[in-house]
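seq/struct pair 1
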Amino acid sequence: MPENTPRAEELKALLGAPLSAVWNGLCTAIDEKYDMERLWGSGGKAWVYEYKYRRGGKTLCALYAKENCIGFLVIFGKAEREKFEAVRNEYPESIQKYYDDAATYHDGKWVMFQPEDFSLFEDFIKLLALKRRPNRK
């Protein structure tokens, strides 16, 4: 865990103004649908920061930040992979490609998106709903 949660100015300086707006927009979109615990962590070797959405010991998704780059990670377990496969044609080709190219591990398929704008937010929220129904109206 980082010793300090990054201040908004630090995150904006790391990401740059355009991606900072994307980060904030994605957090807002998730917060509108889900009441979750939000945890800051170190980003490991590849990222500076990690920001997880969790509830009941299960992670819904995580956002990652490094210089001029955002990562949005969704891990699909076996049941979620089956749900996605059943509706995959409802998603744009870019989402399907991220999914197809993602590595599958013993605990699921780790799909790391790197959003650069707001265009896929609606699809991201639909993906999260495959994992967990929204708990906010």
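seq/struct pair 2
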Amino acid sequence: MSEEIQMALSEASEAMEKTIEHLEFELTKIRAGKATPSMLDAVKVDYYGTMTPMKNVANVSTPDARTITVQAWEKNMLEPISKAIMEANLGLNPQNNGDLIIISVPMLTEERRRDLSKKAHSEGEHAKVGIRNARKDAMEFVKQSQKDGLPEDEAKMGETKIQELTDRFNKRVDEVVAIKDKDIMTI
């Protein structure tokens, strides 16, 4: 296989891998009824005028499947952390007891589970679009290389390898979404 084909495959694979990583990150934001510290990853706290990620101002833990506790490193940060959680619009209600913030994660209704499942599938479709875009870029590179002198049989082989790579990554997207969907729908 020529160097051009290898390069196109390598770049496409790298872009597709990043798409999978992004999908997995986005799916962690969709809560499945169990409390996880990652539910607060997107929350930014006003730390002396600077919007700072939650993990940089507090320790977030889950003592059980229905509770998240937030232990601020500075007691005067409890109120801004509580406010930031409310403003993040996660559907969580933080309780400040003076030492730490306790968040009870409510049970999901069947309707809410279906909505979250649809959202997970939507994220999967976004990932597939990203994979198709990486495939399109790789195919265009191969076609351009063919115009620049790459033999036709090598170009065809490259296109076949790119399609195989695309199919493999699309299957991974389906697997990741199916795992999250099962997690969401399990009571």
